[in-house]
């Protein structure tokens, strides 16, 4: 049973599973003359050797891979001319602001991204404007502003976009994007759980204070 799908370029792709052949060997995806839409092809049940294929989209996705002659998915990520700004709210407490510097250093070491700058939305330096200019001086053509915030509140909707747009005015030709905040990312479950366990270990005398509350004495049973 064959299926056809239309690519964005307008070409029509004919998906023909060979008889009595495992899917791993069915890599030829010839181009046909007519066909249905990609959505219709994906919804149509596929059968290989008389057996329903487990995923109705997997065969189409396989034919779009570069090794099978398709255009494949485009890879997105940080490029050589990108600068990254990680921005938090900013605090009057110096120790809190310094923690952002430590996180940025940790982030840079972990990811290998060459240009990562800290910034505070208010109350402390460097500002978003300062960090933006620092990125541009290092030759970037795109600035990626990442809010170090948990949920998309007013600061993400209004304040950070406004401050970033103001900073960008001084650097025509440099584009920028503001990414989403941390949000409901499942890895945050592990982070929160790890923090809870560490604090419980501390109050039971089995661990030192963590870097967040060291010297404050606040992590204790009341």
From TrEMBL:
Entry keyword annotation includes Metal-binding: yes
Cited Pfam families: CbiX
Keyword Cell inner membrane: no
InterPro entries: CbiX-like (IPR002762), Sirohydro_Cobaltochel/CbiX (IPR050963)
Molecular-function GO term, any one: lyase activity
Keywords from the UniProt entry: Lyase, Metal-binding
PANTHER family associated with the record: SIROHYDROCHLORIN FERROCHELATASE, CHLOROPLASTIC
Protein's name in the database: Sirohydrochlorin ferrochelatase
Organism: Eucalyptus globulus (Tasmanian blue gum)
Highest classification ranks of the organism: Eukaryota, Viridiplantae, Streptophyta, Embryophyta, Tracheophyta
């Amino acid at each position: 049973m064959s299926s056809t799908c239309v690519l964005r370029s307008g070409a029509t792709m004919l998906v023909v599973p060979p008889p009595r052949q495992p899917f791993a060997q069915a890599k030829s995806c010839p181009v046909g003359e007519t066909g249905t839409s990609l959505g219709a092809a994906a919804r149509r049940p596929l059968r290989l050797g008389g057996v329903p294929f487990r995923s109705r989209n997997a065969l189409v996705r396989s034919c779009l891979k570069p090794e099978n002659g398709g255009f494949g998915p485009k890879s997105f990520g940080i490029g050589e001319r990108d600068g990254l700004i990680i921005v938090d709210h900013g605090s009057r407490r110096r120790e809190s602001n310094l923690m952002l510097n430590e996180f940025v250093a940790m982030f840079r070491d972990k990811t290998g991204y060459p240009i990562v700058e800290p910034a505070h939305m208010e109350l402390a330096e460097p500002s978003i404007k300062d960090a933006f200019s620092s990125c541009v001086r290092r030759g970037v053509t795109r600035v990626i502003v990442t809010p170090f915030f948990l949920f998309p509140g007013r600061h993400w909707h209004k304040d950070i976009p406004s401050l970033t747009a103001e900073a960008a005015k001084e650097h025509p030709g440099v584009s920028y994007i503001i990414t989403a905040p941390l949000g409901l990312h499942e890895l945050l479950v592990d982070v929160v759980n790890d923090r809870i366990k560490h604090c419980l270990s501390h109050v039971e005398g089995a661990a030192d204070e963590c870097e967040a509350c060291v010297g404050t004495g606040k992590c204790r049973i009341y």
